Amino acid sequence: MPGAVVCPRLRLGAARKPEPLHPLAARSSCSRMEGSEELENSLLTQPWASVCFGKSTFLAKVCFRDTGYILLISDLTGVWYESADAEAVGQRSKELNKRLTVHVSSFLNHLCNLMCPLLAGQSGATTAFSCHRSPSGLRLHVKSELSGLPFCWDFHCCPAPLDMVSRHLVRPLIQMNLVLQCQVQELISLLLQKDAEIEDYRESGATLSRDRLRTEPFQEEMFQQNFMAETLPRICSAGEGQAFASALQQLYTAVTQQEVKQARKRHCSEDDVDTAPTAETVKHPHSPAASQEDETTSSSERTSPASSPSQKPRLPAAKAKPKKAKGLFS
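^ thats the sequence. predicted structure below, dont judge the formating
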């Protein structure tokens, strides 16, 4: 079409290449990733706690830092989580609490003071929690006060990925099961040793001063049968909220701390393997220098001038004849 003008800005925009990331921006993104990884490792060592919202019972764990927080919550049919950094917390606090103008760290500290008593079973009288589920996730609403003004917060939780569920719930439970099995076997061994000790006392003529302390010898098979028939149904009927008692919380923390230690050891060993070739490459450029010196020395020997007549030529050294080994009868 005659007279049509092509906009050069559009043409330049189509051919423009993406600009490289600024070093400061790259450094901040790396530090943000390291902070989130450290936050998740801290969350891993936090034990699960039973909480109730209305008539629903949940298992929850949370970790707060100056850089943000991570919340993990489950009703044993689904697992949800939310990870929010300081920037997201500041933006949401402006939307939900327009009358409050405090630093982000103050919001995080206040949220921590509200959630930690809840997980410990000591929710404050001035704090209200409500939970709303939807197909897309779970929303936990908190209502309280801050500096004498109304304060509210919403945790927007989405379904947790499988690797997070495995790391925080499945693998620790399997490891706790193995630990408890080993503990039971050691206790059975101790009981059998005690029975042998008591029997030795009886054969020596010792008697009990109080007959009510008399016990029958321990029989492992009979104990297992009675446990399955009587104790197990009582435990299963206690409900899902009793999943993590205080003793199991301590065991969970001990197991996950060991996992964090093992992960750090693997990370350090991988770093050592990665730095090993670098050390070899540092030494490699110096090796040709020696060969160059050898070549220079041999060439200087080949190009050295002939000896003067006053100097006597050196005779080649005679090779020593190998001596014959003297045998016994030689």
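The CA atoms of residues 97 and 151 lie 6 Å apart.
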